[in-house]
Design a protein that fits this description.
Layout (H helix, E strand, L loop, with lengths): L1 E5 L11 H9 L4 E8 L5 E3 L6 H4 L10 H7 L6 H11 L2 E6 L8 H10 L8 E5 L2 H10 L5 E5 L5 H6 L4 E4 L1 H6 L9 E4 L5 H9 L4 E4 L2 H8 L3
Parallel strand pairs: 1-2, 1-9, 2-4, 4-5, 5-6, 6-7, 7-8, 8-9
Antiparallel strand pairs: 2-3
Helix pairs in contact: 1-4, 9-10
């Protein structure tokens, strides 16, 4: 089972900063997870929430701000291309979540696909989303691009039935409620797994990718050396 650092090693460092991702390398993570949004000046910034309030204490919305404005309020903010450089240098895998709903609709998928098409090695890059439409847009752009259909709650039946994504991304809570997912022959990316019992549950049930805020703890619990 591979261990991906959720927004970097975000138990120990500010989420989705270079420090967090470099910390994930030091912690022995096999890969990184990140969330991507489009700024007002059409840049791909790593940011989970629609606004800056939780992380930076500023109410500005990411879609309405230039990247420079975002950096002014939160110096640690980085662009996807900066993380891709670290991915190349460290030979790590990467799972990119495109965030929805957003006012720019499918722009984020188109820009992400354009950026990663420039990568010499695209192996180990997957794109994830809770949006069925987003995953279909990616499939149309490049049918060979690996995608993950994210699953969180009881409204996932349609996504599970109709998605073209070859992989599923259930929350660990959802997987515990639907353990039959482990027998559906689809690679599983399970999030966000910070509890030791949940880590062992994932390992015991053949999960391929465990996404955690604490990769060093996960390695310890699972007995990785």
């Amino acid at each position: 089972m591979k261990i991906y650092a959720h927004r970097g090693a975000s138990t120990d460092y500010p989420e989705m900063t270079i420090r967090a991702y470099k910390g994930a390398i030091d912690a022995g993570a096999d890969g990184f997870e990140c969330d991507v949004r489009v700024t007002k000046d059409n840049k791909l910034v790593l940011w989970h929430d629609a606004d800056m309030k939780r992380v930076a204490g500023y109410p500005g919305r990411i879609a309405e701000m230039d990247f420079k404005q975002i950096k002014d309020h939160y110096q640690g903010a980085i662009l996807l291309e900066e993380l891709l450089e670290l991915v190349r240098d460290s030979d790590k895998e990467l799972a990119i979540e495109t965030k929805h709903p957003v006012p720019t609709t499918s722009t984020v998928e188109k820009k992400v696909m354009e950026l990663i098409s420039q990568e010499k090695s695209k192996t180990g890059i997957t794109i994830m989303s809770f949006s069925w439409l987003a995953l279909e847009i990616i499939r149309k752009i490049n049918p060979a691009q690996p995608t993950v259909a994210l699953l969180e709650n009881r409204f996932n039946a349609a996504m599970r039935r109709f998605t073209s994504a070859p992989f599923l991304g259930p929350s660990v809570e959802y997987l515990r409620s639907k353990p039959e997912l482990t027998h559906q022959h689809k690679k599983l990316f399970v999030w966000t797994v910070d509890d030791a019992d949940d880590m062992r549950f994932c390992s015991d049930n053949g999960v391929e990718v465990l996404i955690t805020n604490n990769p060093s703890f996960a390695r310890k619990v699972l007995g990785y050396h």
